[in-house]
Amino acid sequence: MRGSSRRAGEEVTEVTFGDPQCPADIREVRDRVAEFVRDRVLPCEPVLDGGGPDAAAALARLRREARREGLWALPLPTELGGQGMPLKAYAHVAEAEGESDHGPAALGSHALLDALMLWRHGSPEVRERYLAPLVSGELMASYAMTEPDVPGTDPFLTRTRAVPDGAGGWRVTGRKWFASGAGGADLVTVLARTDGEAPDREGLSLLLVPAAAAGFRVVRELPVLGAAGQAEIALDGVRLPPGHLIGERGRALAVAAERLQLGRTLRCLRWLGQARRAFGLMRERAATRARSGGVLGDLQLVQRHVFESLLALRTTRPLVHEAATRLGAGLDAHIEVGLAKVAAARTLEQVADAAIQVHGAAGLGPDTALPALFRTGRAARLLDGPDELHIVSVARRVLRPART
Ligand SMILES: Cc1cc2nc3c(=O)[nH]c(=O)nc-3n(C[C@H](O)[C@H](O)[C@H](O)COP(=O)(O)OP(=O)(O)OC[C@H]3O[C@@H](n4cnc5c(N)ncnc54)[C@H](O)[C@@H]3O)c2cc1C
User: Taking every annotated instance into account, which residue ranges of this chain make up the domain Acyl-CoA dehydrogenase/oxidase N-terminal (predicted)?
Assistant: First the structure.
C-alpha cells in the first residue's frame, strides 16, 4: 500500500535496530540499505506517493542509484540477475528496506514473489518473455485472487472462470478487486476455476494475464482509508495464448500457498521496519515536546505508550525471524508464519496508534508519516488473510495430535 511520507522532525530520529541476532557480515549491507532508505527514499515519499510522471522519474533515479551502489535486487536469485542473498540473511535487510513502502521498489526486491513464481512454475515462453523485464523493474506485476462477490477467505468459491480456447490457450472471464498495484500493472496473475464447480477443492488454476490483452479492464481504483494502490479489474473473455498457465492445471493452491507464505513473511519484516519508524517518531516527540516543567516523556502515561510499543516490537521480531529462518531452510513454517503475521500486523497498528496519541492532533495531520503507517497497520490485519484465518489455522495445527 502506498502512502508513507517522511515529514518534518523525522530526520533527527536515530535508527536503532535492537536486532542483536543480525550476523556481522549482514550488518554492513543492512546499515547501507537503512541509510539509503533514510537519506534517499524517505525524502522522495511525497513525490512517489503522488504517482504520475514525477513519481516514475524519481523511482527510476533511485533505482539507478541503488544499482550503482550494489544494493539492487539483493534477495533475487543470481540466475535472474539478483544477488542471491538467502532469506535468513535478507530478513535483516528487509526490515530496513521496508521502513518505506517504496523501499522494495527502489531497491529491486519488489519483484521477488512474481519472479520466483514464474521461474519455478512458469512455462519456457513466459519465462523467456517476462522474467528479465520483471526483475529489471521495466514491467510491474500484480496478483489477483480476491473477488467482490465471494469471500476471499474461501478461495474454493472463486467465480472467475478460464476455459480452453481450442488452440492451446485460454479465455478468462471474471472480476477481481483489491489487487495491489493492478491499476498500473503490466501483468496480473489471476486465480480462476478451470475445472469442476465451486466449492471443489481441486480445479483452480493460476493464469498470467497481460494487462494489454483485449478484455482486460481496470474498473476503478479502490482507495484504502483514502490511499491509492488497490484496484478492481474486469476480465471480459480475455484471450491468453498457450503457455500462460502457471503451475499445473487445477493445482493453483499449491503455488499460491508457496507464494503467500513467503509474501506474508516479507510483509511482516517490512511492517516491523515501519513499526520501528513509528516508534522513533514517538520517542522523538516524547523527548522534545516541551510542557511546563519538562517534556511529554516525563508523564508516566506517555512512558507507558513507549514501554508497550517497545515490548510489542521486541517480542514480535523473533517471531518474524523464526518464520523467515524456517521458510528459508525449506521447513514447514505454517505455525511460525501465522504467528508472525498476526503479531506483526498488531504491532504496526499498535505502535502507530500510540505514536499518534503521543503526537496529539499533529499525529493525524499531514506533517508526519503516522497516518500512513497507521493505515498500513490497519490494512495489515486483513490483507494476505485476516487475523481470524491465521488464528484458526495455527490453533488447528497446534491441536493436531501428530504435530511435534
Ligand atoms: C490493502 C489491501 C491490499 C490487498 N491486496 C490484495 C492483492 O494484492 N491481491 C488479492 O487477491 N487480494 C488482496 N487484498 C484482499 C485481501 O486479501 C482480502 O480482503 C482478505 O483475504 C479477506 O477477504 P475478504 O475481504 O473477501 O473478506 P471475507 O472473506 O468476506 O471475510 C470477512 C471477515 O470475516 C471473518 N472471517 C473470515 N473467515 C473467517 C474464519 N475462518 N474464522 C473467523 N472469522 C472469519 C473475518 O473477520 C474477515 O475479516 C487486499 C486487501 C487490502 C485491504
Answer: 25-138
pLDDT in tens, 131-163: 999 999 999 999 999 999 999 999 999 999 999
The DSSP call for residue 297 is G
Rounded to whole angstroms, the Cα distance separating 31 from 35 reads 6
Return mean pLDDT, the chain.
94
| C-beta separation of 111 from 76 below 8 A | yes
Task: Give 186-209 pLDDT, tens digit per residue.
Answer: 999 999 999 999 999 999 999 999
On whether both 277 and 312 belong to a single domain, the answer is yes
Q: Which of 146, 188, 204, 230 to mutate to test the pocket of ligand 1 (most atoms within 8 A of CB)?
A: 146
Which residues surround ligand 1 with Cβ inside 6 Å?
1, 143-146, 151-153, 178-180, 224, 230, 379, 382-386, 388-389, 392
- CATH number for position 16: 1.10.540.10
pTM > 0.70: yes
Residue 19 near residue 27, CB atoms below 8 Å: no
Q: Is 135 inside a domain boundary?
A: no
Structural domain for 280, as ranges:
254-399
